[in-house]
Specification:
Elements lengths: L21 H10 L14 E2 L11 H8 L9 H14 L3 E5 L2 H12 L5 E4 L4 H9 L3 E4 L20 H10 L8 E4 L12 H13 L4 E4 L3 H11 L8 H9 L4 E5 L10 E5 L2 H14 L10 H13 L3 H20 L12 E5 H4 L9 H13 L1 E2 L1 E3 L1 H4 L15 E5 L7 H16 L8 E5 L10 E4 L1
Parallel strand pairs: 1-10, 3-4, 5-6, 6-7
Antiparallel strand pairs: 2-8, 7-8, 9-12, 11-12, 13-14
Helix pairs in contact: 1-14, 2-11, 3-11, 4-5, 4-10, 6-7, 8-9, 12-16, 14-16
Length: 458
């Protein structure tokens, strides 16, 4: 008899979470102006808003926190983090930042100027926000299969080489500061990029003299999928695959709150020492001195340890199998999700789940609100609210996919929590015909509106 799968860790500490009534949740979401970000954490039973910074650190990571060196300059914690980054990614030069969007802000302050064009695979919201804030243009070159939720393509994060070549050939080199490869590709459903595609993108970018930038928040999860789905790498270790991935990048940004399993932290990696020096100026202005960059020494220690833990196969298998378990339960019950199941989250196709809610009434947000009201589970909209308005026409942009993302924090929830989540969604799906109207906007910020938007029920 084959033994069932079991997590390669045991629980040492617990945190109490509280249940609430439906009446409580209706009151709370109304007070939050129907913005799931504005709910208080104690008003949420199972929080699947994000897997960013919400994971449980290990005993070794907590031990490293006690060893943190808080010296302003040249702390031993900086060198511990530097060694881990170079060992795992191969980047010799790096700048610490307090999180991924800070890394983008520092790097893009040097890299991107007004009128530039930045191709990539479904840019993450902060990435696109930083590009458009600088009056540049993010061009999505993701393969078409990524937008077909039932298509079983194993690497839906791949860049379409024909789309990319069109951008590179039709624009002057000076207008294209980088090609961005997001691993895994969050916006298209936590989908991986194959090493074959990474190599082809690098080869094409090199032929045009354009550098390649990795958005590396979930690089280890991407490597796991390469090992499982790309035959040439089946016998390679995760770290061997990671090393080969980064060999095809000229620079990288990382929100370490994902695959390094820390609550706060990030960094930029460079091959070009001159670019590192230029970015160092902005790092000092925006973040802090170049050997701490907005991070405490204890957090740098925990990050360094987390990079090693996050690239262990057993850990990755446990983490991704939990996501897969939820996805399989939903799929078996006819709930439309992005397939194949991604690495960090389940992405529910809201247009199919709530077909009677008009597109302009923010279907995925409507689904997220109803899930919260019914069960106390918080997800996040990856749809029209997140897509924001066109910076020129100011009209709503309607993406090809309207998704509700349920992001699973690392090493946090038990299988019972996952079963509860599945049951709540199945119940909601069974009475989906009752939901026919959504929401309209009362207030929105000029950029990245989804974080602070205020809505009203139609």
């Amino acid at each position: 008899m084959k033994l069932p799968f079991a997590e390669p860790y045991r629980i040492k500490m617990v945190e109490t979470i509280k249940k609430s009534t439906k009446e409580d949740r209706i009151k709370w979401i109304t007070e939050a102006k129907f913005n799931l970000f504005k709910l208080k954490s104690e008003q949420v039973f199972i929080d699947l808003l994000t897997d960013s910074g919400t994971g449980a650190m290990s005993d070794k990571q907590w031990s490293e926190i006690m060893l943190g060196d808080e010296s302003y300059a040249g702390a031993s914690s900086y060198y511990k983090m530097k060694d881990a980054i170079q060992d795992i990614t191969g980047f010799e030069h790096f700048l610490p930042t307090h999180q991924g969007r800070a890394a983008e802000n520092v790097l893009f302050s040097v890299l991107i100027k007004q009128g530039d064009i930045v191709p990539g695979n479904s840019h993450f919201d902060t990435t696109k926000g930083h590009i458009e804030y600088r009056k540049a243009h993010a061009v999505d070159c993701t393969i078409d299969e990524a937008f077909e939720t039932t298509n079983p393509h194993p690497f839906k994060g791949n860049i379409d080489l024909n789309k990319l070549e069109k951008v590179l050939s039709e624009n002057p080199k000076e207008k294209i500061p980088a090609v961005i490869v997001t691993v895994t590709c969050n916006t298209s459903g936590g989908q991986p990029v194959s090493l074959e595609n990474i190599k082809a993108v690098k080869k094409m970018a090199d032929s045009y003299g354009i550098p390649v930038l990795f958005d590396s928040a979930r690089f280890a999860e991407n490597a796991y999928f390469i090992k499982l789905r790309e035959k040439a790498y089946a016998d390679k270790s995760i770290r061997e695959i990671v090393s080969e991935m980064f060999a095809h990048a000229d620079m990288m940004t990382m929100s370490s709150k994902k695959d390094a399993i820390v609550n706060m932290g990030g960094f930029i990696g460079f091959r070009d020492e001159e670019l590192f020096r230029r970015c160092s100026v902005f790092n000092i202005v925006f973040e802090g001195y170049i050997t701490y960059g907005g991070m405490s020494g204890r957090d740098m220690n925990a990050l360094a340890q987390g990079l090693y833990e996050g690239t262990e196969f057993d850990y990755l298998e446990s983490r991704i199998k939990q996501v897969e378990y939820l996805g399989q339960k939903l799929n078996e019950n006819g709930i439309p999700i992005q397939l194949p199941i991604g690495g960090h989250a389940i992405f529910i196709d809201a247009l199919q789940f709530l077909p009677h809610v008009p597109r302009e009434q923010f279907v995925a947000q409507t689904l997220g609100i109803e899930l919260y009201v019914e069960s106390g589970i918080r997800g996040v909209e990856i749809g029209t609210l997140l897509a924001d308005r066109d910076p020129i026409t100011r009209e709503n942009r309607y993406p090809k996919l309207e998704l509700l993302r349920l992001a699973i924090p690392r090493r946090v929830y038990t299988q019972n929590h996952i079963d509860y989540t599945a049951a709540a969604l199945i119940q909601l799906f069974q009475k989906r015909e009752a939901y026919k109207t959504g929401y309209s906007i009362k207030y929105e910020a000029p950029i990245m509106r989804h974080f602070t938007v205020e809505l009203e029920k139609i």
